[in-house]
Design brief:
The protein is of the alpha/beta class. It folds into two domains: 162 residues, Rossmann fold; 96 residues, ProC C-terminal domain-like (ProC C-terminal domain-like fold, Orthogonal Bundle), CATH 1.10.3730.10. 54% of the residues lie in helices and 13% in strands. The two termini are 40 Å apart. The structure holds NADP nicotinamide-adenine-dinucleotide phosphate. The site of NADP nicotinamide-adenine-dinucleotide phosphate (NAP) has 27 residues, from helix 1.
Length: 272
């Protein structure tokens, strides 16, 4: 209800901008007349007009000036330039939401100059199918309505969680980079199936469904993963032999280090 009369300007109609627009429309979170998008490429502008029937423009100023919420979906390297170009036509009642990786709330506030409410969001690529994970961090001037609106938008692409900004590098290393780590695990387990004689497509289907089932068992039963693992592992059965090989190969330590390293790089990128 809170979004019923709001207009949302998406600045940057690239991969993430398009994913958000697609899901916001397909989930009926927003109507076509509530969305407007800008992109520097006129071919992208025509694409949004033709494919989605929404208003689109090559002018960031035109789309930003009348919107209630401005969603920044451009690369962080362009943040300063784009914000400078739109800020003169903005007003203090507009809500700014940025999905730019590594661009902090303090940097956004500094570039915006105006005392506007700002939210930083970190979605992930599973947003494309509505199974994304988005973490939101808010500046001090954010109120409950702002958070509800941001949650309403990102719930269209999956789950949403509000956290302190100090966790954003860890969030980047885990939920943003995480899908890539899981794809490697899926690929490797599927190779295991092939090694044991399964056709590759069957093997990939079996492991993907096993991952989906395991993930849902964790989220839907709220049981600790160790308890769920113990439940699969019968004394002197097959699983314990497989688990022994995982321990020998240092899987746990490797995964912990992978997240830690990705989070370290996220922090480093934020300073570049
Ligand atoms: N992709 C992800 O999974 C993901 C996840 C979390 C966060 N993010 C963040 O989301 C943001 C967008 O990522 P993306 O993958 O969607 O990038 P992208 O596909 O490159 O999208 C950015 C779009 O903005 C356009 N653009 C460039 N300069 C512009 C300007 N001055 N005004 C308006 N539009 C302009 C780009 O055109 P050109 O291509 O011609 O430059 C492109 O169409 C990034 O900040 C990224 O850190 C992405």
């Amino acid at each position: 209800m809170i979004m019923k009369e709001k207009t949302i300007a998406v600045i940057g109609g690239g991969k993430m901008g398009e994913t958000l627009i697609t899901r916001l429309l397909s989930t009926k979170t927003l109507r076509k007349d509530q969305l407007i998008v800008s992109d520097k490429n006129s071919s992208r502008v025509s694409y949004f007009q033709d494919q989605f029937g929404i208003r689109a423009s090559t002018s960031n100023v035109d789309v930003a000036k009348d919107a209630d919420i401005i969603l920044l979906c451009i690369k962080p390297q362009l943040a300063q330039e784009v914000i400078e170009s739109i800020r003169k036509s903005m007003n203090k009642d507009q809500l700014i939401i940025s999905i730019m990786a590594g661009f902090t709330l303090a940097q956004l506030k500094e570039a915006l100059v105006l005392p506007v409410p700002v939210i930083r969001a970190m979605p992930n690529t599973a947003s494309e199918i509505g199974a994304g994970m988005t973490v939101l961090a808010c500046c001090n001037s954010i109120n409950g309505d702002h958070i509800s609106m941001a949650e309403g938008l990102f719930n269209a692409v999956g789950k949403t969680l509000v956290l302190d900004e100090k966790y954003f590098d860890a969030v980047t290393g885990l939920s943003a980079s995480g899908p890539a780590f899981i794809y490697v695990i899926i690929e490797a387990l599927a190779e295991g199936g092939v090694k044991c004689g399964l056709p590759r497509d069957v093997s990939t289907t079996l492991v993907a469904q096993a991952c989906l089932g395991a993930a849902r068992m964790v989220t839907e039963t709220n049981r600790h993963p160790a308890i769920l693992k113990d439940h699969v592992t019968t004394p002197a059965g097959c699983t314990i032999d497989g688990l022994l090989k995982l321990e020998e190969g240092g899987l746990r330590v490797t995964l912990i280090k992978a997240v830690d390293e990705a989070a370290r790089r996220a922090k480093e990128l934020g300073r570049e």
